């Protein structure tokens, strides 16, 4: 397997252009949209503006940034053994959106990401014709999701079935890549998604119905077995965090244990726990880990920019926005 010597050197050079803590702090202090547009351009971000008004087109800008990062990584790592797997959530989102749009008889275009592995036009056509051949595990899951929806008319079934297939395929691809760091990250992601699911359902107090839903919804393949998660679902939230203090998710538990936390604060703590694992890539001088760190570090940078820019648009205070921003890769 390649040691990614040239690719790692290139990525290390590109890391200097990432939007991290310092650039976010500078953006946070801006007073006008024109200032923010200027700063974003200074960061090398392909800013998109409305031709008529000159107003910032936030989502178009952020998606262009992320698309450029994926294009860069594809150029550096054409085989993509340890990097292509991170595109699967976009394909999964697109399949879910296309299936739901098909049944609602609406155009899904505005809900699709155009940088997954499966071209959007092809994916929409496959949903329309019911031909999911050659889409692998996601195609098989799409068939099951359609069958489940036609029986139940419950759109949540589409999400549950495709999400399980997506994470299962991500784990399989990570294992096939031979990159242990990729495997670890997928397992951490699975565990954190599951823990947040346990917490959400616990707060909804759905009783036995919630337990049945949880048993069907929990993702498999993480470090915490599903059986153990189902037992944790019987604990109070305080007891759950106490148990997590003696697990690989000690840092997540410490973040959320002190005082009552909103779901938004818990989601931030989960994202930060994942970022702390991701930052282990910064200790590597070369290898697939460097490319993965750069890629997923940009995912968080885009999330933080979305939080900051939308917060500014909504007139939120800097303190409120700062509380919502995730830990940065750089």
What does this structure look like?
This protein has helices at 5-14, 21-28, 33-42, 58-76, 88-104, 120-129, 136-152, 156-177, 180-204, 207-217, 226-232, 237-244, 250-257, 263-278, 288-313, 318-324. It has 330 residues and is mainly alpha-helical. Helix 5 crosses helix 6.
In short:
The chain is mainly alpha-helical.
Shape category: globular
Compute the CA-based radius of gyration: 21 Å
Strand pairing plus helix content: what structural class?
A: mainly alpha
Sheet having the most strands:
none
Order of helices and strands: HHHHHHHHHHHHHHHH
- Give the overall pLDDT as a whole number: 91
N- and C-termini, Cα separation: 28 Å
Number of helices: 16
Strand content: under 5%
**Spans where pLDDT lies below 50 across 5 or more residues:** none
Q: Using DSSP, what is the number of strands?
A: 0
Helix content: 55-70%
Offer a few descriptive terms.
330 residues, mainly alpha, 16 helices, 67% helix, globular
List the helices and strands and how they pair.
Elements: H1 5-14, H2 21-28, H3 33-42, H4 58-76, H5 88-104, H6 120-129, H7 136-152, H8 156-177, H9 180-204, H10 207-217, H11 226-232, H12 237-244, H13 250-257, H14 263-278, H15 288-313, H16 318-324
Helix pairs in contact: 1-15, 4-15, 5-6, 5-8, 7-8, 8-9, 9-10, 9-14, 12-13, 13-14, 15-16
């Amino acid at each position: 397997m390649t040691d990614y010597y040239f690719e790692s050197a290139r990525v290390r050079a590109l890391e200097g252009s990432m939007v991290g803590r310092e650039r976010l702090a500078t953006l946070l202090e801006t007073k006008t949209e024109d200032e923010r547009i200027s700063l974003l351009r200074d960061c090398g971000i392909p800013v998109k503006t409305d031709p008529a008004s000159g107003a910032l087109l936030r989502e178009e800008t952020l998606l262009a940034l992320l698309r450029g990062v994926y294009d860069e990584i594809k150029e550096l790592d054409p085989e993509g053994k340890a990097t292509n797997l991170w595109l699967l959530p976009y394909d999964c989102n697109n399949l879910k959106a296309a299936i739901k749009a098909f049944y609602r008889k609406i155009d899904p275009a505005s809900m699709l990401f155009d940088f997954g592995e499966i071209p959007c036009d092809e994916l929409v056509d496959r949903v329309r014709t019911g031909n999911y051949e050659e889409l692998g595990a996601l195609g098989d899951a799409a068939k099951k999701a359609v069958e489940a929806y036609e029986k139940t008319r419950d759109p949540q079934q589409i999400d549950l079935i495709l999400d399980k297939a997506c994470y299962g395929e991500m784990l399989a691809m990570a294992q096939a890549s031979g990159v242990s760091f990729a495997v670890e990250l997928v397992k951490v992601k699975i565990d954190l998604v599951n823990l947040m699911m346990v917490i959400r359902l616990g707060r909804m107090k759905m009783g036995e119905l919630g337990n049945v839903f949880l048993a069907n919804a929990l993702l498999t393949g993480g470090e915490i077995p599903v059986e153990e998660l189902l037992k944790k679902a019987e604990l109070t939230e305080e007891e759950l965090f106490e148990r997590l203090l003696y697990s690989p998710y000690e840092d997540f538990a410490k973040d959320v244990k002190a005082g009552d936390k909103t779901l938004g604060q818990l989601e931030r703590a989960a994202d930060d726990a994942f970022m702390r694992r991701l930052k282990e890539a910064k200790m590597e001088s070369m290898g697939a880990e460097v490319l993965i760190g750069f890629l997923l570090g940009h995912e968080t940078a885009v999330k933080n920019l979305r939080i900051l820019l939308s917060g500014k648009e909504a007139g939120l205070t800097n303190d409120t926005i700062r509380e919502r921003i995730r830990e940065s890769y750089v």
